Amino acid sequence: MPTKIKLRDAISIGVGGMVGGGIFAVLGLATNLAKGGTPISFLIAGAIALLTSYSYSKLSFSYPDRGGTVRFVNQGFGIGVFSGGVNNLLWISYIIMLALYASAFGSYAPNLLSMTGDQTIDSHIYASGIVIFATGINYYSIAVVSKIESIAVVTKLVILLGFVAVGVYGLFGNPYLEQLSPQYWESPFHLVSAGMVIFVAYEGFELIANAAPDIENPEKNISKAYSISVIFVIALYITIACVTVGSLGFDQIAGAEDYVLAEAAKPMLGQIGFTVITVAALLSTFSAINASLYGGSRVNYEIAEDDEAPHQFTGMFWNQPIGLLITSVATLVAVNVLALESISTAGSVGFLFIFSVVNLVAYRLSKEIKGNRLISGVGSVACGVALVALIAQQFTSNRLSVYIAASIVVGCFLAEFVFKQREHPAQKKHENR
């Protein structure tokens, strides 16, 4: 009988999923878009995540399944082209997130070598190397993946909370503190769109759904795990954003966009602080890559089991689902082809779309799950409006990102349509699941 997951462990899963590589990768991007209003952008994105976590909590309690989001979408819409397209998008979004984490690792890694004067290695080599290394660990032992994640969650939280404590103290008397005042904020539209570009930093709470079958006292603890983890991370991100904007000039932030959190530690702690945050970033992104490779391969396996992808994906390679190798190779392609903003935009588009659908599932099944239709309905609409705002903003500033994101979404549904057209009806053994 599997060991039951206690509330604190469930909260750790949610917090660990959110505070992965996302905050290290997108903080500089958010600040360049929102300027002094960056904390507001994180609040807006967090509010949408909190609304969505309500729907997830109700669905997780009513339909506990290690398939998590895949199960919810299938439960709400049945197994078909639409649900298959959404679940394919979930898998691809995992790949996009992996590329984001790897890109962040590649941006922070050269900082350690800069102290020796050696910066000759391209960041893409670091990014590719860490993906290959993490893939090897996943093939070697899933137990090792779990141990790395457990250590990383505690370590990165201790470092980030220490950064926040010292940073808040250091704000007093800092000449850049005034940058947080409303006169330095961008327009409301830009605050919203900046929040949506960085929405990927919140998506990890959905990992709680995969652990729902093993959470003890689920009637109370599932809901608490979602709400506590999301609220904690919202507060953490807002404080980190305040410390960053209040410690560095906007030109300094722009110059260190890819590793701005480490740069923000310099005014308070000097080179030691810069180095400690860099190490935390490397550890966080590495652990996030480890865990996301595992999660992505399982999503691929689940959708194949539910006849929403070719059954060849249920095959094994070196005692792991073939999806692990495919996910790894696709990540290597993405991180070496796409720019950071394009990766972040594609990831946010994918998860905003998916979360809008999950909220809609909770709205449609509100009687069965004993949920509040208004909260789920507002969550679905909020995700949809945020998605439109993100696309509109990116279309004016980075049109290529929109084309990439749109191609991914359309491609997922088109692939599912073609697959269903070729699938023999007798194979639909999970139709009434």
TrEMBL record:
Q: Which UniProt keywords apply?
A: Cell membrane, Membrane, Transmembrane, Transmembrane helix
Does the keyword Nucleotide-binding feature in the UniProt annotation? no
**What residue intervals traverse the membrane?**
12-30, 36-56, 77-104, 124-145, 157-177, 189-213, 225-248, 268-289, 322-339, 345-362, 374-394, 400-419
Cellular component aspect of the GO annotation:
plasma membrane
Record's keyword annotation contains Membrane: yes
Q: Please indicate which superkingdom the organism of origin belongs to.
A: Bacteria
The membrane-topology field of this record reads:
Multi-pass membrane protein
Location(s), subcellular: Cell membrane
The family database entries (Pfam families) matched by this protein are listed as:
AA_permease_2
The UniProt entry lists the main location of this chain as: membrane
Name one molecular function that GO assigns to this entry.
Answer: transmembrane transporter activity
Q: What is this protein called?
A: Amino acid transporter
Recorded source organism is Reichenbachiella agariperforans
Q: Give the source lineage, highest ranks first.
A: Bacteria, Pseudomonadati, Bacteroidota, Cytophagia, Cytophagales
